[in-house]
Amino acid sequence: MKKDEIIELLKEQISGLRADNDRLLLQVEALTQEIASLNEALLQKGESLSKQQRIAKGLAKLMSNSSEKQNAAQTPLSEEEQKRKEEEKAAKRKARKNNGARRDMHYDMEEVVHDVYPDDPDFNREKARLFSATPRICIRYECVPMRFKKHVYRIYTYTQDGWLFEGKTPPSAFLNSSYDGSFIAGLMELRYIQSLPIERIVRYFEDHGFTLNKPTAHKLTERASVQLENIYRCIRQTVLEDFYKAADETYYKILVPEKNSKGKGVRKGYLWVVVGMNTRMVYLLYEDGSRSEKVILDELGGCRGIIQSDGYSPYRKLEGKDYPNITRIPCLQHIKRKFLDCGEKDKDARRVVDLINRLYHHDHKHKVGTDGWTVEMNLAYRQKYAPEILADLKDLLDEIEERGDLLPKSELQEAITYLRNEWNAVLDIFKYGDTFLDNNQVERLNRYISISRRNSLFFGSHKGAERGAILYTIALTCRMHKVNMFEYLTDMINRTADWQPNTPLEKYRELLPDIWKKANE
């Protein structure tokens, strides 16, 4: 088509659009008038209804011999009643949720600013005048999946005045490796914090543009555990030196050459978990998956101070004369759970639970380090409330057993026997002002192992479980100190890449999560 023909065609289209526009404007005007008439009718109806309501209200006042003057003469609310009504209103507002809540603006995030201008074809920014000096703000949050960057270093070599000058090769996490510490840290985070098995991590990497085969992923994990072994040893040393420790054990399935009774080459392997309650360090020990008392007694037997645990026999041996420097205290939650297992209908068990709950009720009234509450104040408070409750608890146990109607193998008898065996250790809890009533801190950490166990099912060997103990030690310690594990491992792997294996552990102490600072800080 020629230029003139195109112009005529566009003019006809514009004319048609204008006609459509005029027709729509007429429809809008007609609808506006109709809405106005409906609104007027509704107002009239509302006035009529309001009038009827006023009449009914007046009649009600006449029938009750009340008047506006009498109402005005009523006694005003007291200050206490007014305060109570305001508190009730506040409680109702709170129950509605999101009352007065503000959106989290995420000021610490990476921010990209976009200027958005009108895109209408008739808009000319040079001719237009700014309507408001402050633009309207609109926010959208973008998710950028895991990204991989390939850094290519061109290393040049020069000769000058008979000398050879060569660019320095950037450090590598491992000898003859192309992987930076951040790559290995990302792999470790997915494996030991997000609890993904290696197979899923490999697929996840591939979905985001990086092909990593499974043997390489396993090899990187293995080499990382070797490099981080001294940090692991330093955490172990710090935990064992802590005056107050808590201990427990959990299991993981291990693939082994020997077949079990079901013809499968798998067995339970136990991880011992020890937490330094003062330093908030976490140490995991794996020794061929053994739950033998020798493992934990050899590890904790030379320690000093308090060790808190459940009533498993190896821990209870730490109360004996062979370990004079150790005081073992129990977990009241384990004791309480024994009585809860007796069921709601067992009134005797419920009475024991109520007394244990009274101990918790008093202990939760104060927290050491909050509002000036000291360890000494907490100890004095415990010595005030605990003896009476513990005496009532002991009297209750005597009463139940002396009645003679308790079956020897009943759940209640087993619970009472468990508590009797732990009684002296229970008393020891209240001889200190900074001990916990239970072992819940370790129980919470064990959940991370449980999640990983459900996701990845097993360790491929005892060696794999040992690596797991090293990396879980570091991961859980980072979590205890609210340290970003990815940033921590990236820094540790890069910073210690050229450290010798015989580097003193004292040097690693400065890198542990409780006092760690990034290399560039």
Task: Characterize the structure shown.
The protein has 521 residues and is α/β, with parallel strands linked by helices. Among the domains are: 182-328 and 458-521, no CATH class; 332-438. The protein has helices at 3-63, 68-72, 79-95, 181-192, 198-207, 214-227, 229-241, 293-300, 313-316, 332-340, 347-363, 375-402, 411-429, 440-456, 462-480, 485-495, 505-509; strands at 157-160, 163-166, 244-255, 266-276, 281-285, 305-308, 326-329. The strands form two sheets. A five-stranded mixed sheet has the order 5-4-3-6-7. A two-stranded antiparallel ribbon has the order 1-2. Strand 4 and strand 5 (281-285) form a beta hairpin. Helix 4 packs across helix 16 and helix 11 (347-363) packs antiparallel against helix 12 (375-402). The radius of gyration is 37 Å and the shape is extended.
